[in-house]
């Protein structure tokens, strides 16, 4: 069986969708008559395509040419018609928009499934009722339900970065393995971003305990100013060992660097999910979002969450104006786990 998966637009969601793909790949009901696993292709935007290239169960990644947020009906029809020749048996449409369902429809894939919404029920078969935003299951179960899988059927997402890719990323940025990776940004908004002074204090404590190692700040160009403010607040005696690489790496390079890190200090972010899937130790700070819905899927992950009465609010900025969910989450709470007593090197 040949399967097309229409990928989400967020890195974290893309990583969490790998559990569905892994389950499909293991599913004997979808295997060929000769016992070969189903062949999985992914149609992904450029931002999430690298995630699927790191999945051992994905046969091919087709990078979509669409502009974010635009219908581009003629172009979607053209892409669908081109994919028709691939002879896909099924399509799993992970985003919830109408436009994301159009390509499988134009590709004449008979079995097209996804959640209801935006009138797309008219072109989905079968269609699943979309749960209320107040009753959202964890994302693994949300995606797994598209093929009737329960939590028991789903494994944690797994990504693989080839050793050569990691070694090249280290050479590209003149780094040695074993550094502390830090992902201080949050695409969704500042209500998911631990304050710069807290991050800086935690980085300072880690560097003090590891005098021969570096801390590397990763993210996009939009995170650069915030990362630089963290760098300036790190203790001066350790500041020379802080590297700010926000906006300087490709996603593939960032994945290679994270795979070479001893741990990742992060907010609830896409890179948090990447590190968990790469089996890197994750220290994840949660504020406006919930670790129940989007946790780092790694048995070796540590989550820091105050669970205040106003949390989770899922807002981009604090609706109460105080951001206590993050301001009151003090660096010592994280540092005590990041550098347990007696474990400094």
UniProtKB/TrEMBL annotation:
<dbReference type="InterPro" id="IPR002201">
    <property type="entry name" value="Glyco_trans_9"/>
</dbReference>
<keyword id="KW-0808">Transferase</keyword>
<dbReference type="InterPro" id="IPR051199">
    <property type="entry name" value="LPS_LOS_Heptosyltrfase"/>
</dbReference>
<comment type="similarity">
    <text>Belongs to the glycosyltransferase 9 family.</text>
</comment>
<protein>
    <recommendedName>
        <fullName>lipopolysaccharide heptosyltransferase II</fullName>
        <ecNumber>2.4.99.24</ecNumber>
    </recommendedName>
</protein>
<dbReference type="InterPro" id="IPR011910">
    <property type="entry name" value="RfaF"/>
</dbReference>
<dbReference type="Pfam" id="PF01075">
    <property type="entry name" value="Glyco_transf_9"/>
</dbReference>
<keyword id="KW-0328">Glycosyltransferase</keyword>
């Amino acid at each position: 069986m040949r399967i097309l998966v229409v990928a989400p637009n967020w890195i974290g969601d893309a990583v969490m969708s790998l559990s569905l793909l892994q389950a499909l790949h293991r599913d004997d009901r979808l295997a060929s008559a000769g016992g070969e696993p189903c062949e999985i292709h992914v149609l992904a935007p450029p931002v999430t395509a690298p995630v699927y290239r790191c999945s051992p169960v994905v046969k091919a990644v087709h990078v979509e040419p669409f502009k974010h947020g635009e219908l581009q009906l003629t172009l979607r029809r053209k892409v669908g018609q081109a994919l028709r020749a691939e002879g896909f048996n099924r399509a799993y449409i992970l985003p919830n928009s109408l436009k994301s369902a159009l390509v499988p429809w134009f590709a004449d894939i008979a079995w097209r499934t996804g959640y209801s919404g935006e009138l797309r029920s008219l072109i989905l078969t079968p269609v699943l009722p979309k749960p209320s935003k107040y009753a959202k299951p964890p994302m693994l179960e949300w995606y797994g339900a598209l093929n009737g899988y329960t939590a028991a059927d789903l494994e944690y997402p797994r990504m693989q970065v080839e050793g050569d890719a990691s070694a090249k990323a280290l050479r590209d940025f003149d780094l040695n393995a074993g550094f502390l990776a830090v992902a201080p940004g949050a695409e969704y908004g500042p209500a998911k971003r631990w304050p710069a002074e807290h991050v800086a204090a935690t980085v300072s404590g880690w560097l003090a305990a590891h005098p021969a190692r570096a801390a590397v700040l990763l993210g996009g160009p939009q995170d650069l100013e915030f990362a630089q403010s963290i760098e300036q607040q790190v203790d001066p005696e350790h500041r020379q060992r802080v590297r700010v690489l926000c906006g300087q790496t490709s996603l593939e390079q960032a994945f290679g660097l994270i795979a070479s890190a001893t741990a990742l200090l992060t907010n609830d972010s896409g890179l948090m999910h990447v590190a968990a899937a790469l089996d890197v130790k994750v220290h994840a700070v949660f504020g406006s979002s919930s670790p129940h819905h989007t946790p780092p899927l790694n048995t070796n992950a540590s989550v820091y969450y105050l669970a205040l009465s106003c949390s989770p609010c899922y807002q981009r900025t604090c609706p109460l104006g105080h951001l206590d969910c993050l301001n009151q989450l003090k660096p010592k709470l994280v540092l005590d786990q990041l550098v347990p007593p007696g474990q400094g090197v």
